[in-house]
Each structure stands twice: as structure tokens, then as C-alpha cells.
Write a sequence for this structure.
């Protein structure tokens, strides 16, 4: 049996749960009960109790650092300043089993008693029977806390199912309240803001960029609700919100990271009770444009050469850029500056391979050129991106200790499996449908290539000249003196993926 010091002073940990059971006991009420109980045991209470006013449950959406962390740190650093820890009730202290185990281990290690007022008992953390009963208690609390959380989530879900508004009022809407009861009656479009949004949808559909729009808005003095100019990222995020299409989204798995709600693949959608800002077709069209992968990168920059960035540098794998050198155009690596090659000779080699690939019956007869598969691909890409983001957020919450390692370990494997599954779905669907519709492959590709706009050729080349399809041309260093003396064909190697097995 381990020797415990005498229990003379206790330090309290006080916490109010914000659950809806209606049986809350305030910090002051807890204190009063603690003082009475301590007096009856002739123990002294530390003048500075730990107070945590955040929500107790790890099911709570906003994990917050509070006095719990301070207390753990103090015990670790031998700054606790008392012989015992006093809790009013065990369920008011631990958020998770991992927290419980951590606390009990620390108390045992530092020989600190644990008193629980409502149990009318002093526990010795070095005694295995005491430890066992505290752990069992924590298991009961955890299941209770999960039940409460389920109940709260269910009522939010029920409201969502009815399509009623929930949460902050988005840009473009105003709330209408009943003048007698003060209750929210409905959400309706607010003309000034809604008109801005409609303008943005219309212009994006017409090919305007987010940049052009926010630029105009800033000149016109059309700002966000916080009175600052719109940024392209804010506007892009706003326009893809389901709210504006009159779709109510309920997402039981959303997490708040850096003050921002992030949807997950588990989101469910229902028709909303509020008026949409734009019709569903326009919204879908704009969302498809904004989600297009090539838009995310170098959006707005004008492409003067179809193979810019497409042909790679062997030493550093960067994409080569086009420059002028002594009156001739050359491809040059701007990263390692090691590679330079004449553009004309290189284009000849690259286009020959590209045309060869795109005029193969095996390529243009493939049956995947349906619009359905394009829609399925974009849905799968979206779900994959969301699952990846969710996984990343979970890991971040673990790293910043907002979630315990145990919780992360429990939640991670199914998410990893989901990311892998969606990745496989995307790979299976990932065909250049969109590209094929811009410039379909066929025997006459060479003629049509010549007629197509540079931007179209660039988009197609960027997609087709990849390891997955025709292969990526990579230019190596010249083995001869002067970059023009070795023929281009000898310096180009093709990075290619092994052909996929046909299912
Ligand atoms: Zn390079």
C-alpha cells in the first residue's frame, strides 16, 4: 500500500454543464456544497478554485481550452498547491475516458486525494478499488453524455428536416420576426445584398472571374457585412452555399475550425422554407464552374502557349515556361534554371505524340463520354475533398489537443477508409470527359487542334499529357555543348503510368 500524505487542503475544480437537462447546478451552488462538506471533514479549501465555464461534453462543438488544462498543467508541474482535488460531481469534470485516465494517473503519481462532494467520499487514487470505481463511474458518465448529445443533435436535425432556418443569418437574407411574440417567422431575401449575389451568379455563368467581380464591387463600394471589401475566396465560398439555391443542409458531422463551419460528406439536404436567391440551374452551373479544378490554379492568367507548364523539367520536375532567346522561343525551367530547349523542335515532338494518342480508336471510342459520368465524377471529387478536409481537421484538432488522442484514434480509421474508398471512386471515374467535350479525340484531331483557341488547347494538353494518359513529356539536360545542338527528340523522356487493368 502506497503511503498517502494527510489530507489537509483541497483545491476545487468547478464546472457548469450547459446541457439542456434543466438540472444544472451553478458554480456558486457547487461551491456552497463543497464548503459545507469540507468543513465537516476539517479540510481547508484552496482560495483559488479552478473554474471551467465551457461545455463539458466532448460532443460539444466548440472545444475550448480552460481551467481543466491549467489544472492538469499545475499538477504536472507540482504547482497544484493542495493535498487533494475536490469535485462536486464526477460527471462535471471529465469530458472523456481519456481525460479521466489522465487525471487519475496524475493524481496517483503525485499522491493527491480525490474528494467527490455528491459521493460524500474521499478516494485514494493509489488504491485499485477506488480507481476501479472511479473509472466505472466515468464510463457511465460518458454514455450519459453521448445520449444527451444525441438528443440535442436530433432536435437540430428535426428542424433541418422541416427546412427551417438554423444558425447565423447569411449574407443576402434578413430575418422577419413576429411583432408580438418576437419569434422568428421566416428568412427572406434582402434586396441590396441579394441583388449583388444574383449579379455574381450571372457573371460567373457568363465567364467573368471572381476577381473581376470583387474588383468592381470594391469600386462601387459594395462591401461585406463587416464593411470590408470582398475577397475572391470569400465570394467563391459564398456562391457555392446551398442556402442560395433554397436548399437546407444539415450536417451532423460538421466541425468548427478557426471559426469556420466545414461540411462533411455526411451532409443531408432538404428543401428550405426560405426563398432561394437564384434558381437551382444557375446555382448548379456556377458551382460546377467554381469547383472546376483548373479554375483553382492560375485563374485569370492568360495563356499564350498551349504547352506552358505542361512539359516538365527532368532535374526538378517543374513545368517549363516559354521565353524568348536570341529571337527564338525556348522552353526554360524557371526553378532550377538548368533546362532550356527550343520550342519549335519540342512542340513538333510533343504534338506528334498528342495527336497519335488522341486519334487512337481506343481513346475516342471509349464509352465514358457521357454527361452522367461527368456529374458522378464531380460529385465524387467533392465528396473526396470534403472527406480529406474532415480527416485533416480531425488530425489538427488532435494535434492542438482540442480532441483527445483516444477520440482521434477512434474517429480516424473510418475516415481514412472513406478517403481511400472515395479516392478509388474518383480514380475509376477520372476520365477527361470535360476535356473530351471541349475537343473530342478523333482521326481529324490535328485539323481541329489547329482551329481551337490556345486556352482550350492548353486545358486539353494539361490533362492529356499526363502520366495517366498520353504520358508527360520531360526535358532533360543537354548532354552536348549549347542547348540547340542536341535534337529535341533525344532530350524528351515520357513519364507514364502503367496501363490500368480493365475491370
Ligand atoms: Zn528545373
Amino acid at each position: 500500500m502506497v503511503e498517502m500524505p494527510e489530507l489537509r487542503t483541497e483545491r476545487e475544480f468547478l464546472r457548469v454543464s450547459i446541457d439542456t437537462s434543466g438540472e444544472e447546478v451553478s458554480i456558486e451552488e457547487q461551491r456552497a456544497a463543497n464548503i459545507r462538506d469540507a468543513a465537516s471533514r476539517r479540510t481547508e479549501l484552496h482560495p483559488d478554485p479552478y473554474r471551467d465555464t465551457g461545455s463539458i461534453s466532448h460532443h460539444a462543438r466548440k472545444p475550448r481550452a480552460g481551467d481543466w488544462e491549467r489544472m492538469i498543467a499545475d499538477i504536472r508541474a507540482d504547482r497544484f498547491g493542495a493535498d487533494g482535488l475536490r469535485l462536486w460531481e464526477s460527471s462535471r469534470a471529465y469530458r472523456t475516458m481519456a481525460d479521466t485516465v489522465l487525471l487519475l494517473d496524475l493524481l496517483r503519481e503525485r499522491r493527491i486525494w480525490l474528494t467527490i462532494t455528491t459521493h460524500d467520499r474521499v478516494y485514494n487514487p493509489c488504491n485499485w478499488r477506488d480507481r476501479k470505481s472511479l473509472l466505472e463511474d466515468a464510463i457511465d458518465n460518458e454514455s450519459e453524455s453521448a445520449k444527451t448529445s444525441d438528443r440535442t443533435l436530433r432536435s437540430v436535425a428535426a428542424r433541418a428536416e422541416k427546412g427551417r432556418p438554423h444558425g447565423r443569418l447569411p449574407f443576402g437574407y434578413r430575418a422577419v420576426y413576429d411583432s408580438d411574440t418576437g419569434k422568428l417567422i421566416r428568412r427572406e431575401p434582402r434586396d441590396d445584398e441579394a441583388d449583388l449575389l444574383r449579379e455574381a451568379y450571372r457573371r460567373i455563368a457568363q465567364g467573368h472571374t471572381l476577381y473581376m467581380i470583387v474588383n468592381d464591387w470594391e469600386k462601387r463600394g459594395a462591401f461585406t457585412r463587416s464593411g470590408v471589401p470582398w475577397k475572391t475566396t470569400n465570394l467563391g465560398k459564398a456562391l457555392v452555399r446551398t442556402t442560395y439555391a433554397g436548399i437546407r443542409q444539415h450536417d451532423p458531422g460538421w466541425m468548427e475550425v478557426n471559426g469556420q463551419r466545414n461540411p462533411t460528406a455526411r451532409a443531408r439536404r432538404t428543401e428550405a422554407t426560405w426563398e432561394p436567391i437564384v434558381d437551382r440551374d444557375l446555382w448548379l452551373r456556377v458551382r460546377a464552374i467554381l469547383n472546376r479544378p483548373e479554375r483553382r490554379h492560375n485563374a485569370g492568367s492568360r495563356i499564350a502557349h498551349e504547352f506552358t507548364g505542361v512539359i516538365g523539367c527532368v532535374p526538378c520536375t517543374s513545368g517549363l515556361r516559354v521565353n524568348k532567346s536570341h529571337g527564338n522561343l525556348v522552353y526554360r525551367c524557371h526553378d532550377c534554371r538548368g533546362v532550356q530547349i527550343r520550342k519549335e523542335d519540342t512542340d513538333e515532338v510533343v504534338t506528334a505524340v498528342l495527336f497519335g494518342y488522341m486519334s487512337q480508336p481506343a481513346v475516342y471510342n471509349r464509352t465514358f463520354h457521357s454527361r452522367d459520368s461527368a456529374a458522378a465524377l464531380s460529385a465524387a471529387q467533392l465528396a473526396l475533398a470534403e472527406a480529406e478536409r474532415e480527416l485533416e481537421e480531425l488530425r489538427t484538432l488532435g494535434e492542438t489537443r482540442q480532441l483527445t488522442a483516444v477520440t482521434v484514434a477512434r474517429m480516424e480509421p473510418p475516415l481514412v477508409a472513406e478517403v481511400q474508398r472515395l479516392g478509388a471512386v474518383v480514380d475509376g471515374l477520372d476520365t477527361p470527359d470535360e476535356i473530351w467535350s471541349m475537343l473530342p479525340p478523333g482521326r481529324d484531331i490535328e485539323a481541329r487542334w489547329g482551329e481551337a483557341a490556345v486556352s482550350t488547347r492548353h486545358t486539353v494538353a494539361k490533362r492529356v499529357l499526363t502520366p495517366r494518359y498520353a504520358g508527360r513529356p520531360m526535358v532533360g539536360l543537354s548532354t552536348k555543348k549549347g542547348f540547340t545542338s542536341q535534337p529535341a527528340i533525344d532530350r524528351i523522356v515520357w513519364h507514364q503510368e502503367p496501363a490500368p487493368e480493365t475491370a
User: Anything to note?
Assistant: The chain has a mean pLDDT of 77.
